[in-house]
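Q: I'm writing up a methods section and want to include an example of the input and output format. Could you take the sequence below and give the corresponding predicted C-alpha cells, formatted cleanly so I can copy it straight into the document?
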Amino acid sequence: MNKSILKLAIPNIISNITVPLLGLVDMILMGHLDSTIYIGAIALGGTIFSVLYSFFSFLRAGTTGFTAQSLGRNDQTEIIYSLYRSLIIGIPIIFFILILQTPIAKISNILLDGSSEVKQLAIKYFYIRIWAAPANIILYCLNGWFVGMQNTKTPMFIALIINILNIIFSFIFVIVFELNIEGVALGTVLAQYSGLTFGIIMLFNKYRYYFIKIDINILLDFNKIKLFFKVNTDFMIRSFLLIISIAFFTNQSAKLGNNTLAINMILLQSFYIFSYFTDGFAYAGEALVGKFIGSGDKTKLTKAIRLLLTWGALISIPFSILYALFPDFFVKIISNNTTIITEIQPYYIYMIIIPIITFAAFIWDGIYIGATASKAIRNTMIISSIFVFLPTCYLLKPHLGNHGLWISFLCFMIARGITMTLMAKKNILDTI
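A: Here is the clean output for your methods example:
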C-alpha cells in the first residue's frame, strides 16, 4: 500500500511544488524592483484569479472522484464519459469568464483593499492574465481525469512545462523587455497554453483506445448529469469558501499597510510550499480512495486512509524544523527589501508551526474528494470559515493586529482538520 501511495504521491509532489513557482517567480521578479507596491499588486492580482478559479475548481475534483470510482468498477464507458461531461461544462465556463472580464475586474477592484497604486497595477495584471482562462479551465478537466486514472506523472510534466516556461518567459519580458508587471502576466499566459498543448498530446497519445463514438443519450443521462452537478456544486462551494478565506486574509493584510501585505504574502508562500507537498499525498488519496470505494474494498480503504494521514504527519515535522532553522534564507529568496526583512521577523513563529497543525486538513481534503463526499466537505468548510475564521479574526485583529490575523487563520485550518476527522466514519468508511 505504501508503494502505491508513493507512486501516486511523488509525481504529485513534484507537480505541486512547481505550482507556487507561478506566483513565487513573479514575486521574486517584482520583489527585486525598487518598490513594494509590485509585490502587493501581484498578491492582489493573484488573489483575483484564485477567487475566480475557485468557482470552477470542482471540474478537477469532481472529475477525479468520478473517474477513479469508474476505474474501480472497471466501467470503461463511464471512465471516458467522466471527462466528456467535465468538458461540456467547462467550455461554456470559458466563454462566461472572457465575456464578463470587465465586470469581474471592476467588482474585484471594489472588494480588494490596497493603495490606489497597488490596485491599478493589479487590474493591469488581470486584463492580461485573464486570457489564460481557457487553458486553465481545460487543464482542470484533463488533470482531474489523469489523476482519477491513477496517472499522476502526466500532470507532473504539464506543471513542469508550465512553470519552467513561465520562468523563462517572465524573465525575458521583465528583465530584457522591461515590461514589469505586464511581463509576468504575459509570461504566465504563454506558459499555460504550452502546458495545455502538451496535455492534449498526451491524452490522445496514451488513451486513444478509450475514445469511442459519443452516445448523446449516455453523455446527457439525466441521473448522471444531476449527480455530477450535485457533487460538484458542493465542491464549488467548498473551494469558493476556501479561496474567499484566503482573499479575506489578503484583504485584511492590505488594510494594515503595504509592508504588512508584502510580509503576509511572503509568509503565505512558505505555507503554500508545505501545502503542495502535503497535497501530493492528498491527490494520491483522491485516486486510491475513489478506486477502493468503486471496487467496494473497505479493508484497503481503511488502510489507505490511515497511511495517508501518517505520511502527512511525517512530512510536516521536517518542514517545521527547516523553517525554524532557516527563516531568513527563505525570505531573502523572495525579497531583498531591508525593511521587509526586518519587519517580518516577529511573524516567523507562524511559518514554523503551520505545517504541524494543518497537515490533517490537506490529507482529509483528498480523501473526501476521492469519496465524492461533497456535502460533508462543504459543511466542514462552512463551519471552519464562517463560524471559526471570521469571528476569531474580528475578535483578535483589533487587539493583536497582524498577530491576531494569523492566529485566526491557524484556527481556521485546525477547525478544518478536526471537523473532517469527526465526520469521516459516517461519510467515508460507512459508505461501503
